[in-house]
Amino acid sequence: MTGRDRSNERLVALFLLGLLLFLPPLLLVFNRPDRVIGIPALYLYIFVAWAGLIALSALISARIGREAEAPADTAAVADKPLEETSRA
To answer: Quick check: is 42 in a domain?
Structure first.
């Protein structure tokens, strides 16, 4: 499996996590009159979940960018057995 395939799988997993975090049954758990640091629990949950999704998407995007910038020669060397790379 290539790094690009793993990154695509991570993006799909992130999308599914976002769907799960904002499903109404889970939101109803936090829809209470309780306050955390003076902020309603539901608002705090939505903000933290949204910020977490943004942070995770930034990490995945940075990883995709690093993989795109990697020279093609390193990928070719990584696929060769150790014996062949030591001769080159």
So the answer is: yes
How far is the C-alpha of 15 from the C-alpha of 18, rounded, in Å? 5
- Residue 45's CB is within 10 A of a number of other CB atoms, namely 19
Type of residue found at 38: G
pTM listed for this prediction:
0.68
Determine the structural domain holding residue 28 and report its residue range.
3-75
Alpha helix (H) ranges present in the chain?
3-21, 24-30, 41-69, 72-79, 82-87
Confidence of residue 67 (pLDDT cuts 50, 70, 90): confident
Cα distance between residue 43 and residue 36, in whole Å = 10
